[in-house]
Amino acid sequence: MVSFRDQRFLIDCGEGTQRQILRSGIGFRRLNRVLITHGHLDHILGLAGLLSTFARWEAIETLEIFAGSWALERIHDLVFGVVLRGARPPLDIRLVPVEPGLLYQADGVRVEAFPVTHRGPDCYGYAFIEESRRPFLAEKAEELGVPAGPIRKDLVEGREARLPDGRVIPPEAVLGPERRGAKMIHVGDCARTDNLLEVCRDADALVIESTYLEYETQLARQFGHLTAKDAAGLARDAGVGKLYLTHISRRYREKDVLAEASQVFPNTSVARDFDQFQVRRPD
Ligand SMILES: [Zn+2]
Ligand SMILES: [Zn+2]
Fold this sequence. Notes:
The chain has about 280 residues and is an alpha/beta fold. Helices cover about 30% and strands about 25% of the residues. The strands form three sheets. Strands 6-7-8-11-12-13-14 form a seven-stranded mixed beta sheet, covered by helices on one side. Helix 3 (about 45-55) packs across helix 4 (about 70-85) and helix 9 (about 230-240) runs parallel beside helix 10. The chain is globular. One zinc ion (ZN) binds near residues 40, 42, 43, 189 and 247.
């Protein structure tokens, strides 16, 4: 789950997702957008359980499921064929086809989709990009005698402000130079990294699969997956801030995965269920 202020995006929905959401205590409120990386069952089966929970949850009126067209067909069958079987949906379910490019933009964040190579067509990764902004310089405002309250809000939002003494303050007087926002990249199952270099460039966080270890590279190639070393190589080459590995095969010990990746890219974590991380710019 990616949260930005009061917006939430669930990325993929494997079996047991709804149960883990319950256990995590994060709740289902505003959980109205699901982004699917691809249509393999371990990434979509949980939609069935999630929907049956939502059926008893009146707070959610609309659920948007974003996915490539192949995945969307399978999700359609699962939701309308298996779960609902002709019954009226308990909420408005919108299946939204994903194409490369801007997918969503609101309240200070935008989400972009980009193609990922894996088994089968229509696999996507997602970039979460916080809008750039100009920081409010509180000392400057103090110097100019700008009182706290709604006047400052006007200036922060780029409007000029008239002070009680009649002076007009332009926003430029109290705003610093523009700074880019934080950027987070999520890549699901993935067979190669060379075509992801540009999209991952300078991301503050990269979340990506790492199904295999290097000694089983052959299996990784055969099934369209990455090794920990592959993932770390991408993080290093793209200059990302922090690497989070997911989709680890149960055959491996976490410390072995971490050791392999850290040799190439030290700032790596192996993500576990219920972990929470904050994504920030380095400054
Ligand atoms: Zn897959
Ligand atoms: Zn998978």
